[in-house]
Structures are given as C-alpha cells and as structure tokens.
Amino acid sequence: MAGLATPDQEAPGVREPTAHSTPARAQAPGTDRRAVVASPVASPSKRSITVPSGQRIRGDLSDPRQQDIAMRLLSSAENSTLDWTARYAYIEDIGDGRGYTAGIVGFRTGTGDLKTVVERYTTAVPRNRLAAYLPALRKVNGTESHEGLDPGFVPAWQAAAADPAFRRAQDAERDRMYFTPALSQAKQDGLKVLGQFAYFDAIVTHGATGLATLRRAAAQVAPPPAKGGDEAAYLEAFLDARIALMNTERARRDLSRIESTQRVFLRDRNFDLSLPLRWTVHGDAYEIGT
C-alpha cells in the first residue's frame, strides 16, 4: 500500500497491545492545535486549505489525502496537535511499562517496533548514530528497561529525525505494521473510511492482537457489512468493545478519542469522513476543513 506523501518524499512504500495515548502530551512550541487543513502538502501553520477542485479522493485510506486526515486525527489524540509530521523526533518514556515511546505513531522500545524502525533505517544508512544502539534495543525488547540506551539514545533519535531516510523508515514501518493491515481487515469487513480509521486507531493503540479481539467482540453483537450487517450497528459494537478494552489497560483512562471523536462521526453517519470534520479530544477542539 502506498504511504503518505511527506515534504521530503513523494510516496513511501505487530505489536502487542500498547497504551501510549496519554492526555496532554507536550505540544511543540508554536503549534496551532486547531489549524484547519485538508491537504498532505499543506503547511500546518495555515488555518485554511482548500482541496483543489477536480481532484477526487478515493473512498479508502489508500488515498494519500485520506491517510493524511487519518494521521491528523490520530495525532490529535496521541500528541495534541494536527501537525503529525512534526512528530518524527518525538521520544519520551510515558511511564506505561513499555520503555521509550517515539515517532509518528508511538513506536516502542518495549514492543519491538521501534527496533524495527532503526533496523530499516540502518539498512538504508549503515553509518548512523542509532545503529550503535541496536544490540541494546534487542535486549530491552519486551521490557520497560533503558539499559544500554541512556543517556545517548534520546538525542540520537531526535537528531536522526532531520534525515529524510529516517523519516521514510518510520513511514514504511507505520504502513507495514498499521496502515496496511488495518485497511485490509476493514475492507474484509466491508467498512468505509470511518471504519477503516477506527481499525487503524485501534491497531496503533492495541496492536494486531487487540484489533483481532475487538473484531471478534463486535461481530458477536452485530455482523459486519460484509456479512450482511448494518455498518452503523457494527461500528457501535466495535467502539463499545474498544471502550471496554481501554478501561482494562494501564495508563488508558481518557476515552475522548472514541466518545467525542469517532462516535461523533458515527452519529453523523459520516462513513466517508467527508470534510469538514470537527471533534474534541482531551478537552481540545479540532477542525479539518475545506
């Protein structure tokens, strides 16, 4: 599946359940959380961007514009900003027992996906500052330990974010682990863009195992559209199952990414995530407009 178009590339090419969406993450200085945007090539500092006339957006997340919207929705919940492209350098330990959380979708030292990003980057650029930490990353996989990583790994990650090859490595691993499987499974279930985003958001936060669990739980309540079910009823069941799962997880208590975001779109029956979109997460209001 084609990845998102980012400023330095035209188009770039599972982990266990995690808990990396905590309220009020540090926001980049000067970032306007309510910037109104609609194009992956738009400057995030602009308040209003119009989708060029005559450009039709495909009805699924394989379209770069729809992917960009999905990433902005995700970033509002994960990082309290719509400017997801500013998060390549992000890294911190959020205290959830999975080590460092970093990058555009919260790759983890404790879940193995951060290690995979560094491995991909090192394949492309063998002489890089992060390559020296690969033995330590393999050792801490599955733990919350920083052994062998401190104090140099954090500044090395932040410095690497200036390298387009490193950003491409993050994009490619996001697509391989999250976008592509979420889109594939959502299409299997007959879901439109809203459902595809719901699966993407779920696999990022709960992993592949978590998404599989949620699909089974939802199907027990209402069949998916691919099996003759009503899409709204199925998505309601899916979101109900996700709320129940989130309530069992460490460091996951804010439910606004579901209740005042995805349920808002579902209540409006906006299955195609047509613009404009307005939602609230962690108490902050956002808009993606035309």
Automatic annotation (TrEMBL):
Keywords: Glycosidase, Hydrolase, Secreted
Region: Disordered, residue numbers: 1-64
EC number: 3.2.1.132
Primary localization: secreted
Superkingdom of the organism of origin: Bacteria
Alphabetized Gene3D superfamilies for the sequence: Chitosanase, subunit A, domain 1, Chitosanase, subunit A, domain 2
InterPro entries: Glyco_hydro_46 (IPR000400), Glyco_hydro_46_N (IPR023099), Lysozyme-like_dom_sf (IPR023346)
Family (UniProt): Belongs to the glycosyl hydrolase 46 family.
Protein name from the UniProt record: Chitosanase
